[in-house]
Design a protein that fits this description.
The chain contains 11 helices and 2 strands, in the order H-H-H-H-H-H-H-E-E-H-H-H-H. The protein has a two-stranded antiparallel ribbon. A hairpin with a 5-residue loop joins strand 1 and strand 2.
Length: about 300
């Protein structure tokens, strides 16, 4: 009767040779990482939240408030201060009213929903102590961030589209559907004005990517949603203040706030793209860096809440 063969000892590895691959851990039957936390589920959760409804109500009511203000204060074009501005042509047509609404809200009002939708994502889950349960589902961390960021950007874009649409409808009802009177002289037909306003809205969304990325990054490093949202809004305001410091000279060109009103070049007889292209490049560059920091930091974060 022969004795059982003993396994041969492992051969010593050659210095510098790559280590043999480790066996992959078995996954649960039917588990697919890309199917966890679907976008429709996350979007429905965000849509049902009270702050979403409040933001939608504010953006919807703003055009009505401005129409009432113009009715009380009188036609702004009749003041005759010498220089014609976009505000002076607000009551010329529905297109002018929509452009004016975008002008008065671009600096701050549109910043708030972007910071709210992108900054109140991961931090709110942490504050509710539900973040660790999402990750234990299991939802991969990159998948969780990507789903929440996508929904946050979609809701931000929806907010920026909602405001001019309501303003265009309210302005057309109050002041008529006519040509868009340009502050620099001349006019654009109603058919040409709508695509120009679409360009304005698109550029506003791109320029707000910095605020969105900043809020999203802060949302991954803090458990306080108010801190993430308030921090993004506060730093955006700081950028606007720095842009007013003329002593910075050409250094202001690297500030996203320096290009936030470059969309005014779209409301010219001949549309200029140079300012919007440069402003988009600055905003996208900052946003990509901040998004990368968010994903990299959250991948190594010890989630305990």
């Amino acid at each position: 009767m022969t004795a059982p063969a003993t396994p041969a000892p492992p051969e010593p590895s050659t210095p510098g040779a790559p280590a043999p691959p480790e066996p992959s851990a078995p996954s649960a039957p039917g588990y697919r990482a890309r199917r966890t936390l679907p976008l429709r589920v996350e979007a429905l959760r965000q849509l049902k939240r009270r702050r979403t409804l409040v933001i939608a109500a504010i953006l919807t009511l703003l055009p009505f408030v401005l129409v009432a203000a113009f009715a009380i204060g009188g036609d702004p074009s009749s003041r005759g201060n010498g220089r014609v501005t976009l505000m002076d042509t607000a009551t010329a047509s529905g297109g002018n009213f929509a452009a004016t609404v975008l002008f008065v809200s671009a600096g701050f009002l549109l910043v708030v929903p972007v910071a709210l939708f992108c900054g109140d994502t991961v931090a709110s889950e942490a504050s509710w102590s539900s973040l660790r349960y999402l990750l234990a589902a299991p939802v991969p961390r990159a998948r969780l961030l990507l789903s929440k960021l996508t929904v946050g950007l979609l809701f931000s874009a929806a907010a920026m589209v909602l405001l001019p649409l309501v303003a265009l409808a309210v302005g057309a009802a109050a002041y008529g559907w006519g040509p868009l009177q340009l502050p620099t002289g001349g006019a654009l037909s109603a058919g040409d004005a709508v695509p120009r306003l679409a360009v304005v809205v698109g550029y506003l969304f791109v320029s707000q990517l910095v605020t969105a990325a900043l809020a999203f990054w802060l949302s991954t490093v803090t458990d306080a949603p108010l801190g993430a949202v308030g921090g993004a809004v506060g730093l955006t305001i700081v950028g606007n203040v720095l842009d007013q410091v003329t002593a910075l000279d050409t250094w202001r060109n690297v500030l996203p706030a320096h290009w936030q009103y470059s969309w005014a070049d779209a409301l010219q007889p001949h549309m200029e793209w140079a300012g919007m292209i440069q402003g988009s490049a600055v905003s996208v560059s900052y946003a990509l860096v901040l998004f990368a920091l968010a994903f990299r930091g959250f991948a190594k974060k010890d989630v305990v809440s």
